[in-house]
Design goal:
By secondary structure, the protein is of the alpha+beta class. 43% of the residues lie in helices and 33% in strands.
């Protein structure tokens, strides 16, 4: 799940939570995209 609020917009980041790892905290949008692409290609977890 990705949470976007005022703080995330200012920081150009997303607050990420996953089922597998729980709260991951604030992660830059570019890193989120990279991780999603990698997880999709490897059919693995974020």
């Amino acid at each position: 799940m990705a949470v976007v609020g005022a703080k995330e917009l200012e920081a150009n980041a997303l607050s990420i939570r996953t089922r597998a790892e729980g709260e991951l905290g604030s992660i830059a949008v570019s890193e989120v995209i990279d991780r999603l692409v990698k997880a999709n290609l490897e059919q693995g977890n974020f």
